[in-house]
Design goal:
The chain is α+β, with helices and mostly antiparallel strands and 150 residues long. It has 5 helices and 7 strands. A 5-stranded mixed β-sheet has the order 4-1-7-5-6. The radius of gyration is 20 Å and the shape is globular.
């Protein structure tokens, strides 16, 4: 953080600053109704509460990682687990709601999810693996129905 920003933050009351923790370059994994964010990095950013907006949040995220249009941002409601507390950040109102839900001194946790349009078929086998997995699930369901019918 450069000296100007440190000086400005030092002058401001902590009640005016929102500390934000970004989790990025990881992925959500859902196993037995337990959601985890696996891999990736995390970094802190600081923003003035009265400037909270999607462009502001995405701008701070861009300080740490290349921001793509297809990225979805989720924030974790305080005191909740990932499986029940994730809220989608879609617009300025959602950013304001997030800010209002954070207690004094609290830090919102923002998780970055790269959506399918971010994946290039040359870069990832995710689509193929997901298709194979879906076909396998349909096959198992058919076998179970046949077994139950007899």
């Amino acid at each position: 953080m450069d000296g100007k920003i440190k000086h400005k933050l030092a002058r401001m009351n902590n009640l005016e600053i929102l500390h934000v923790r970004f989790h990025y370059n990881g992925e959500f994994v859902n196993s037995r109704r337990i959601v985890q964010y696996v891999g990736g990095d995390e970094r802190m950013s600081y923003t003035e509460k009265d400037k909270i907006s999607m462009p502001e949040i995405r701008g701070h995220l861009a300080d740490h990682v290349e921001v793509k249009d297809a990225m979805q941002l989720h924030w974790l409601f305080p005191g909740k687990e990932l499986s029940t507390g994730l809220r989608l950040l879609t617009d300025d109102k959602a950013c304001l709601d997030m800010s209002n839900c954070i207690a004094e001194g609290g830090v919102p946790e923002i998780f970055v999810e790269e959506t399918m349009s971010d994946y290039n078929s040359e870069e990832s086998d995710w689509e193929t693996d997901n298709l194979i997995s879906s076909v396998f699930c349909v096959y198992i369901c058919i076998l179970v129905k046949i077994y139950v019918a007899y």
